[in-house]
Amino acid sequence: MHLKKHPAKSLLMAYIDLLKLNIMSLVLVSSILGYYLGGNGIDSFSRLLITLFGTTLTAGGAGALNHYLERDADSLMERTKNRPIPKGIIQPGNALMFGILLVLAGTVILVMQINLLTGFLSILTAFLYVLVYTPLKRITWLNTSIGSVPGALPPMGGWAAATGELETGAWILFAIMFLWQHPHFYAIAWMYKEDYALAKFKMLPVLEPDGKRTIRQIFWHLTLLVPVSVLLYIEGNSGLIYAIGVIFLTGLFFISAIPIAKDRSIKSAKLLLKSSVIYLPALLILIIIDKII
After folding, report:
1. Which three-class secondary structure state does DSSP give residue 199?
2. Is the pTM of this model over 0.85?
């Protein structure tokens, strides 16, 4: 089990903690992926930077609102009880206003400086994450699948920023991200199932401690990820180098899940989690190499 995070040492660091930088980094990588693939490269770095800035604000605001809504649950869990609100470093009302302002600011920037579609996708992502996925954690184990919808929207936002529309390739990226998130979040849920039980979150490993359905969900989505990821080649958005590379990359991701199927250990869950985090930037690098060569 990971050690719990230490409390923020300053008010500034506490507000930075609210942004959920680990999630934001994945959002930004997937946004760049969509922008690069949709625009067939990067024709305007300034436009990309504005897109990423607006996306950062909106994603950070959604993270802060998640902190606000889950403050009581966070106080019960070992890994989250040192977060800024449970520790009393930031008052709940201040976190709420901070989150709302960031979401609105990011959306306005994207609408005014990029296009309406990108702004809409950004605020839709925040809405689904904060007001649909977050409360569903206490209602149904399907929160992981439903929460994968807002998690799969950032590459579509990047694509929309580059092209002004959503073409077939954008929907394929959505599907890739949707499938990728299941092994990623089930690995986290397995690692922290005791904590989630304390918070009364209805995560699948909490409801079924033997892990059989969790393992099935992981491998079901990993299996689907192989053919879906190749669709970018079939659709003509990428070349043969990508097709060969993505089969190899997704195969390694699949193999990294085998240990947790065998021993159900925290160590194996960490391996799967690390593989999932590596997968996205590796996919971006593969797409760039394919385009250059």
Report:
1. coil
2. yes
